[in-house]
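Sample entry follows:

_____
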Amino acid sequence: MNYTPMNIPSDDPFVCETIDGGVCAARGFKAGSVHAGFKKNTDRCDLAVVCCDHGATAAGVFTQNIFCAALVQFDREQLAAGGQIRAVVINAGIANAATGTVGLKAAQDTAAEAAVLAGCLESEVLVASTGVIGVHLPLDVMKAGLPNAFAKLGNDAQEHDLASARAIMTTDTVPKRCAIQWRDPKGVLCTLGGMCKGSGMISPNMATMICVLTTDAAIEAGPLNNALHKAVNRSFNLVTVDSDTSTNDTCVILASGDSGSDLIIGTHDEAYAEFERALIYVCENLARQIAADGEGATKLVNIYVTGAASQEDADIAARTVANSPLVKTAIAGHDANWGRIAAALGRSGAAFDQNNVNIDIMRMPVLRQGLPVPFDEQEALARFEDPEILIACDLGAGAYGAHMWTCDFTHEYISINADYRS
């Protein structure tokens, strides 16, 4: 008997043009980066600054980890004050987490130093850090590096934009950035771009990453905050590499309003809907890059769950499969081991009848109505050569669905994390 592969849900396409760049693509923004000394490797920059030519509307989403870093506490307070933001300072190599009042003062002092260099108020500066937890941020290194980083500010797609994306990397193997352009309802060209880092200690509830997004669209703080939270839930919160949520997760967006459009984006208009889709597009692109560059990963893995009795059931089923070490190691071994997928679904807590479950691997039916179906093992091996793996599960219990991005587990993941502090 021949079995037809399941249909995979797809979103409505957003009409935009992908362009080269990241945080410097939108009008009004510049970036600069240097090696300050947070990392031992002098060949790698470890300090980046993103600046707006004037005050920008801003919003942020942060880790839900209670053991959050000093910079997270600091940035939350900065954004809660409701003012505009001129600069974001990011260092890599030292996380400034579990550093108490000393770490909080380091974040404050960093903002104060950056404010002088940017010609703005301390309240207009955000800070972000990534790296080893429990190590104090050396302020002498920060104070020596910041002037050099500001001196290198520019908006060249390679020299400034790409270089800054490289500067915030830790165990990442590639820089991650994305930029797009679209036209607002009045036909004015708008740009949105961003850069992020993230490779390990990645799990939903904000994933583990540092992300800076910039746009020249004009949008008020409330709608910007709403759009960012929705975009994060549709992207970074759907990524898992190893089920660990970090102390430092930070995602901020700055809006310069320099597109030239006289549209001020509100919550319930066509311009807002377009902006929201643009933001989701960029965040999803960056989220996929994070999953594909998971520590030691060789495959980007898409997990789809359909037919769930509730949205909560769909989410927990997809996350359980995506986080399963047995599923992830089977993918690394090119093994179409549907039993591990079925077992993960069964322990997820989602309500369903096993006799109604269907599973496809790489669009190849392997389980129908809870029972295995014949498939060609050689064909399965051939399909596993694809760099992007697709697993689809239908629970047959309702109309809800969910999607997760993850990656395979290889020996290299253990090597990277066993040696991280050494």
In short: The chain is about 30% helix and 25% strand.
